[in-house]
Design goal:
Layout: H1 2-14, H2 16-24, H3 30-40, E1 48-53, H4 59-63, E2 69-75, H5 78-91, E3 96-99, E4 112-118, H6 127-137, E5 138-149, H7 151-156, H8 160-166, H9 174-186, H10 196-205, E6 209-213, H11 216-219, E7 229-235
Pfam family, one: Methyltransf_11
EC number: 2.1.1.-
Domain Methyltransferase type: 51-145
Length: 238
């Protein structure tokens, strides 16, 4: 399992600069306003503690820089965290970034009011373990917002040319494509229907209520060629 995570971190480390470039024009776009609206609806008090799991190049800390919140971003990939720190500094935002495994969090229980994650859970080897950890660190009454898609199933069907087209602004080499396809074959998410599997795992983790919005991608302006993006909202009971 650790070898698998090392391979995943290595692959995304090679892609870190491309992701930052891809997200630079997204922070003030109509897409950003949709995310901001959804997230803001779950912030009921100033100074809320937010955990951004799989922060990547810092999309959420930059998106939410004008909100009164304390944001902690974690990622397994050092190169992604470097991009996030640089971007936040350039934009005058504020966030704490830590290298951490999403399946094993180094936080006390009941530490966060809101957990955010985007385009991450498809890429986790042990999704059930991650959901249990996220439930543990949420405060009673806290909320998890998971924006994701069934990328494993979608990307398995793509040709090399399509993979190159759909991956963030940085062309990927044949070696990287081969590495990516090997990773896809090992991911548990590729063997279960999503987001139905997520709903099951979240309830098993202890969440009292789980809602799935399958139309979220359309709200972002996704076209028929895009992998459909869904939004899962999971609530921890008080």
């Amino acid at each position: 399992m650790e070898r698998q995570k090392e391979r995943i971190a290595h692959y995304w480390g090679q892609r870190s600069e491309g992701f930052r470039q891809a997200h630079q024009g997204e922070w003030d776009s109509p897409t950003a306003s949709v995310y901001r609206e959804v997230i803001s609806s779950h912030l009921s008090k100033p100074g809320a503690a937010i955990l951004d799991v799989g922060t990547g190049s810092g999309f959420f800390p930059l998106l939410l820089k004008d909100l009164d919140a304390q944001i902690t971003g974690i990622d397994l990939t050092p190169e992604m965290l470097e991009q996030a720190r640089d971007a936040v500094k350039e934009q005058g935002a504020s966030a704490r970034f830590l290298q951490m495994d999403a399946e094993h969090l180094a936080f006390d229980g009941e530490s966060f009011d809101l957990i955010l994650t985007r385009n991450l859970t498809w890429n986790l080897p042990r999704l059930g373990q991650a959901y249990r950890e996220w439930f543990r660190v949420l405060k009673p009454g806290g909320v998890l917002l998971n924006f994701d898609g069934d990328y494993v199933e979608a990307d398995r069907k793509k040709s090399p040319q399509e993979l190159d087209k759909f991956h963030a602004s940085q062309p990927i080499t044949q070696a990287m494509q081969a590495e990516y396809r090997e990773i896809l074959e090992d991911l548990a998410g590729g063997h279960h229907p999503r987001p139905q599997w997520d709903e099951q795992l979240l309830r098993e983790a202890g969440f009292s209520k789980v809602e799935v919005d399958m139309s979220f991608g359309r709200r972002l302006g996704q076209g028929p060629e895009d992998t459909p993006l869904f939004c899962i909202t999971a609530y921890k009971g008080r």
